Amino acid sequence: MNPTGQPVQLKPNYKILGVLAAVGLVLFLLLQVFPSTASDTLEVQQVNVVSQEKAIDSAKAFANDTLVLPDLPAPSVTYHTNAELSGYVAKEKLTQTYMQKLEKVAPYDVFRVHYPDVGTGDALDIDVHMNTGKVVAFSMYDNKTGASQPFSLDPTATTEKDESVTLAEKQEQAQPILKAMGFDVGQLNLQTKGNQQDLLYTTKDGKLGDSQLQLKFTYEYGQIRSFQPVLTPPDTYTAYVKEQTTLAGWLTALGYGLFTLVLGVLAIVFGSLKRRHTSFKRGIVLSIIYCAISVFSVLNMWPILVDITLGESNKIVSYVIIGLQLILNVLMAILLYFSFVGGDGLWRERGINIWPRSKEIGYGKYVLHSVAVGYLYALILLGVQSIIYLILENALGVYSATDDTSSPYNMIYPALFPLLAWMAGIGEEAVYRLFGIAMLKKIVRNTFVACFITTMIWALGHTLYPIYPVYSRPIELLFIGLLFSFIFLRYGFIAAVFAHVIFDSILMSLSLISMGGIVNILLGVFYIALPAIVAVVIYTFTKNKGVENAYPPYVPPAPIPQAYYDPAQGQQQYPDHPQQFQQYTSPVPPSEHENKPKE
């Protein structure tokens, strides 16, 4: 760390860091990227995903030909997943069996094509397989309330309630749909008995662990209203997920939310108390960048946030949730600003320049070295994370489920998804490292304890991700967060931000690249290179690139005279002439004077 009032510089050991980064990259590629060696939890499926346009074409053909709905409005497309099913498959190590036997007819990942009004006041959802492009399910409901509505393959059918429809008539109505879905009715086992309203079939090879595939038709007024291939995990697993989700909610609310709020309030207090050591201009630009990205990220997820509720009248709930999230993001940006001011003041009060200003001597080269350190440590962190995942998977049985709430497929502009890495890097490093560590050091008087506490608060904020058991995520992020703390204390705030941003950018860019298409691939590469581009731009436009070309020119302070012992005076003296200063740079003890022979 650099002392205040001196030129800023960074001298990493690139040789050692380079070797560690190379090892980390190899581990990351072997354990997380290449599917032939990846674990079930880490595996990235290398499959071709159909375009959303292809999904719309398939849904339209099915609606026209099978459902006899010729006039359809413009649809919307969102990605949906059955998180419980995907989690059960991963937990019970059934991935290979599922992919071979049932994934084609009962996928947990689908494109949902939504038609808001098919001409009868009803909305229609058609689920399309993401890899084959075939329709696998559909459902019709009232577009105002979201309630189920009768649906008939016969356009002339009435909606009057009719409970006299026989089981044979239900089967007759279902046959065209089963045929369109690719099922052989002769190979299906009928499960519906007596006057049961729904029509259920099972398949001969539909067993998966403790689950059995069911082909479910629902009826109202004697007419089909939906078809769904149902593969329900056992009740024990469902109860386990519910319990874990509840625990994650408490950990997030109390461990992360409450203590982050406390840090925010303390940041306002210390920002005011330490104002003579810093400036209220500090962090304004970064806070605005954070706020802009966080607000845009919410608006970018508009399709899936609105799609959470069915029916136009129920969407007011989604709008309220979105509004509250936007307000919360703005408040977080305000607290972030005070974290910048308070954190900078606390460190400078101690004489430590952990976050240099652009006008300080050597700032340009300092930024270049910081981004280089960031790239190297990002690769090291990816390797460490891969090892932690592998250990936790084997020791605790850690597994993950799919999640559609943060998928790039559900974004208006998925190409901008990796920008979230900058929001996370800037915000989390400022709150939990720049301010959090400095503030807690005043209380606990121990650097490691301060790092540990702030890291745990940060880690508990990630427990809502669908990774089980939920306590495994804080364990993983405890090690990752302590490494971020080490980077912060060893190389400074800018290097820590770059390391965090690059680390997240690589992971998010891989998600973007996995969507396919040359544009997404090029954008993924661009986002990985973006931190380096930002650093070069800063270096180019800053006047203080280094000590040798500083603006204004850097003049080292005059040396402080060193005391010497003057035998004539019998006490310590300071030279008052340059020649004397050169002559008496090293003090000579009296005993040595006495032992010297006289000339």
What does this structure look like?
This protein is α+β, with helices and mostly antiparallel strands. The chain has two domains: 2-40 and 237-541, no CATH class; 52-92 and 103-230, no CATH class. Helices cover 52% and strands 12% of the residues. It has 17 helices and 14 strands. The strands form four sheets. The protein has an eight-stranded antiparallel beta sheet. Strands 1-10 form a two-stranded antiparallel sheet. Strand 7 (199-208) and strand 8 (211-220) form a beta hairpin. GO terms for molecular function: endopeptidase activity. Its EC number is 3.4.-.-. It holds the Pfam family Rce1-like.
Numbering strands along the chain, what is their spatial order in the largest sheet?
2-3-4-5-9-8-7-6
Radius of gyration: 32 Å
Query: What ranges have pLDDT less than 50 throughout 5 or more consecutive residues?
Result: 39-46, 147-162, 581-585
What portion of the residues fall into strands of 2 or more residues? 5-15%
Give the number of DSSP strands.
14
Total helical segments: 17
Mean pLDDT: 85
**What overall form do the CA principal axes indicate?**
elongated
Largest sheet: 8 strands, antiparallel
Could you state the oligomeric state of the chains shown? single chain
Helix content: 40-55%
Number of domains: 2
What is the first-to-last residue Cα distance? 50 Å
Counting helices, strands and paired strands, the structural category is: alpha+beta
GO molecular function: endopeptidase activity
Domain CAAX prenyl protease 2/Lysostaphin resistance protein A-like: 415-505
Keywords: Hydrolase, Membrane, Protease, Transmembrane, Transmembrane helix
Biased composition (Low complexity): 562-583
